[in-house]
Design a protein that fits this description.
TIM Barrel; 33% strand; 7 helices; single chain; alpha+beta
Length: 478
């Protein structure tokens, strides 16, 4: 009986001990919740604040949180402590964040959750690329700044990827930009509101005096067009200099050959192309089909991006259909529609060559306009392209030009197809060749064969079109 009493006493004591342990544990948890509010895990219960004033970042239980006094709060922005400034999201330091974020004081460069006041340069976030000076975005800066990807046109602290042309920087120099990026490879003439300037390797040299491609330049500014030639051919009649196309003929009507070289033209029919091989072939440029009527060529984006990767200058052409079975009035409407579609496809492209109207006639269609009517529509298309900032050109066969257009009334240079290779820049001594001689002042390229060796230029297709260049391929730069 005494033994049973002792057992009962021990059991009672054990229950009391367990109960006391539970009470102590609940009391401890309450104290912890009171003294360590950071242990509350329900974000919905946190006070939301939008200002960094009075906030501090603290480490509690191995985690860094944002506090206002002794209260943990939900804050997204940048808060500080004695160790620095920190990116917080919903009150917790985000160690994975690298970019640009803000608080009441401005926007700051952040790396792995911490503001880097030691960094100056161009950095990006989801809203764009920004110039930061000592870690803070400088919205008052306009000029040129650099990062590991290049040098950029900055306006009001933000990189302007839509900027094309020349602009000054804070070092006193004027630089040439393409899609917001400094192009140190460019040498040529560029216009702005103050005149036309000679740019050498991407920079205006205001000490330059001389001539360039028929232009007299004084203190780097073009002051007049001279009447000099570099290479001449047999004089031809009724030749005129083309507006906005440098000097094409001299005062006597002799052809001025500004540049020579091979240009290839490609479309989806050429299949996959190794542009590394294309680059090594030494081509002066590539003309690629951007559109058939209002539809984008399925290879255009691939071809254009590869040209940009390998540094190959390129232009584009649109195979037009607005003249199929059309009156002049109907063709004008369709020409506008097709030109607008093409310009949409060109947005963001680094085009340095011509934007070309390809005039042909597929089987089953008729041409119902007179030569002058079609010329009027072609000029309308060219005007739309030029107003968009590109240099237009007309492509067709020699017979098309002779029979379906009025060459003397066209407002753009010509790219003519005539498959009769002479092995030189001289046109064939045939009827069509003689016609080409009569308009040679307006011929920028001659497509002399459609049987070029595709493999030599990296093309999957057996053959590739080849063209001889007579004038600067990049003279059409925007």
């Amino acid at each position: 009986m005494a033994v049973n009493t002792e057992v009962r006493t021990r059991k009672q004591n054990s229950k009391l001990t367990s109960l006391l342990a539970v009470i102590l544990m609940v009391f401890a948890m309450g104290l912890a919740m009171f003294y360590f509010p950071s242990l509350k895990t329900d974000a919905a219960n946190l006070k939301v604040v939008t200002s960094c004033k009075g906030l501090e970042v603290r480490k509690v239980a191995g985690v860094w949180w944002t506090y206002q006094g002794n209260t943990r709060v939900s804050y997204t922005g940048i808060a500080h402590n004695e160790n620095g400034w920190w990116r917080t999201v919903n009150g917790q330091v985000d160690w994975n964040y690298t970019g640009i974020a803000c608080n009441d004081n401005g926007w700051y460069r952040i790396v792995n959750g911490k503001v880097r006041f030691d960094q100056t340069g161009v950095y990006k976030n989801e809203y764009g690329w920004w110039y930061c000076q000592y870690g803070k975005v400088d919205f008052g800066y306009t000029g040129m700044k650099s990062n590991s990807y290049g040098s950029w046109r900055v306006e009001g602290g933000k990189v302007n990827f839509n900027f094309n042309g020349i602009a000054p920087s804070d070092d006193g120099h004027w630089y040439y930009f393409v899609n917001g990026k400094f192009d140190g490879s460019f040498t040529g003439l560029v216009k702005n509101d103050y005149g036309t300037w000679y740019v050498s390797k991407g920079v205006i040299d205001f000490t330059f005096n001389g001539t360039y491609r028929g232009y007299t330049i004084k203190e780097n500014k073009v002051i007049e067009e001279t009447k000099t030639t570099t290479t001449t051919k047999t004089p031809s009649t009724n030749q005129k200099n083309l507006n906005n196309n440098n000097v094409i003929t001299d005062a006597n009507g002799n052809l001025v050959v500004e540049d020579r070289g091979i240009v290839v033209d490609i479309s989806k029919w050429n299949g996959n192309i190794d542009f590394g091989t294309m680059k090594k072939s030494g081509v002066k440029g590539v003309m690629m089909r951007a559109a058939y009527a209002s539809s984008k060529d399925i290879k255009f984006d691939t071809y254009s991006s590869q040209c940009e990767v390998y540094g190959i200058d390129y232009g584009v052409y649109q195979f037009a259909t607005f003249h199929y079975n059309s009156t002049k009035s109907a063709a004008m409407t369709k020409a506008k529609t097709q030109a607008d579609a093409l310009l949409g496809f060109l947005k963001g492209k680094k085009i340095k060559g011509y934007v070309t109207l390809d005039l042909e006639l597929e089987s089953g269609y008729k041409l119902e306009m007179t030569a002058q009517e079609l010329t009027d529509v072609a000029n309308y298309w060219c005007d739309l392209i030029q107003k968009a900032g590109y240099m237009p050109m007309i492509y067709c066969s020699v017979s098309w030009m002779q029979n379906n257009l009025v060459a003397s009334n066209i407002h753009a240079p010509f790219w003519l197809a005539y498959y009769n290779d002479t092995g030189s820049y001289n046109f064939p001594k045939t009827g069509y060749g003689q016609y080409m001689d009569s308009i040679d002042g307006k011929i920028t390229m001659w497509q002399y064969t459609d049987k070029g060796n595709g493999a030599k230029y990296g093309a999957e297709s057996e053959y590739i079109d080849l063209n001889r260049l007579y004038h600067s391929f990049t003279g059409a730069t925007k």
